[in-house]
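Incident review: delayed structure delivery

Summary: a single-chain prediction request sat in the queue longer than the usual turnaround. Root cause was a stuck worker, restarted by the on-call engineer. No data loss occurred. The affected request and its eventual output are reproduced below so the record is complete for anyone auditing the incident later.

Affected input:
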Amino acid sequence: MTSLAPPEGAPHRPPRLPRPRPVPRLPEPGVALPGRARAADFWADVRRRGTPLLAPDPHGSPEHRAVTFLWRGTPTTRAVQVLPNKLTDPRAPEGNLMARVPGTDIWHWTVRLRDDWRGTYVFHVDEGGGPAPEEPAYWPWLRRNRRTDPHNPHTLPARWSGEPVSCAELPAAPAADDWLPRPGVARGSVTEHTLPSAHLGAARRVWLYAPPPAQRRPAAADGASAPDTGLPVLVLLDGEHWQPHLGLAHLLDNLVADGRIPPLAAVLPDSVDAATRWRELTCRPAFAAFLTGELLPWTATLLPVTDDPARTVVAGQSLGGLTAAYAALQAPHRFGNVLAQSGSFWWPDGPSAEWLTGRIAAGPRLPVRFRLSFGTQEWVALPAARRLREALAAAGYADAVHREFNGGHDYLCWRTELADGLVELLGRSGR
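Output delivered after worker restart:
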C-alpha cells in the first residue's frame, strides 16, 4: 500500500529512461540546398521565408512534413547541434548534429513530423576553443554555447534566463491567437505582491490578476444585481514565468471577452529557482498548506473570490502539474479542479515511483475533476501519465480528461493546453 507520507530524499531529476523510438530523422533535406556559387542567394531567400523550411513528406503522407532546420556557419564553425524539444536521444547526442553542405556555410538537419507538431528549439554551436569532439567534456561544453535561430522571428522567453528559445509550428498545429493582446478588449489588472508565509518559512512573491472592476460582481440575466457568489479562482504555479514572461493576463482578458470563461481572479506564486522548485513542488504538505491556508485567504482580502471548490482551479506544469494534483487530493474542499500539463507523475525516481498515482488508486474517489494533457514526444512522462489515467478510471473519476498533443515538455504547447483546460473546467459547457 502506498504510504500517506510523500517520499523523502528522491533525486532532483526525472528517470533516465531510454528513448523508445529513434528520432524521426530523414537522411536527406526536404529542400534543395545549393553549392557555394548560389549560397548567398539561398540565404537571402531564407531571410524572406523564415525557418525551419517545410517540404512534402518523402513517404507521401499528406499529414506529415519534412522539416529542415538551418544554421549559417562561419569559417571557424566546427559543429552545430540542433535540439528541438524532446526530439533528441540523450544517449546519442551526435544524432542531432547538423551536416554541412561541402564548400558552403549551410548547416542542415531534417526530421519527418506530423503536421500538427509544434515545439521550441535551440542550437548549440561549436566555434572552436573547446574540447575536441572525442573528449568526454565535449558535449557538456557544447551545451553551454546556446543560440537562438536568427532566421526565425518567433520566440518564447527562456524558462529561467538566457536567450529566448525559437518556436516552430507546423500548419495544423493548434493556434495560440488567444495569447495576443487585442485592441478594444477590457483589460484586467496585474499587481505584484510579497506574501509572508509561515508554512514556507520565507516570504514569497505573488502575482494577482483581477478582472476590470465592472466584471467583479456577477449580474443576473435581467440586469439586476445577483447574489455575490464570488469570482472563480485560478491558482497557477510557476507564476514568475506565466505572467512576467508569457503574459497570462492577455489570455484571460481575451477568454473573458469572448465569453468562453467567466471573469475570474488568478493568483500566481513564484517558484523562486530550480532548487526551491524541487524542494516544494514534490508533494510537500507545507506547500499545499501554503496554498490553502495562506495564499487563498490572502487573495480573499483583496478580491471578492469564491470559496466554492467547484469554481476553483489549481494548475501547473511538470512538477507543478504533480503538485496541483497533490494539492487537490490534500484539500478537495478547496480545489475542485486540477489542470495539469505534462505533470511529473513518474515522481520520485527510485523507490515509491509514481507515488501519487498509488495514493489515488488506494484512496476514495474525491470530488475533484482532472484535466490532464501530455506530449506524445515525452517518452519519460507519458507512460506514467497513461498509468495515472488508468488509476483515475479505476478509482471512479469518470469525468477525468486525458489528452495527448503532438509536442514535448514545452511552454509552447502548454499555452494552448492551459487555455483549453480553463474553458473546459470553468466555461459554461465545462460546468
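Verification: The two ends are 34 Å apart (CA to CA).
Action items: add queue-age alerting; document worker restart procedure.
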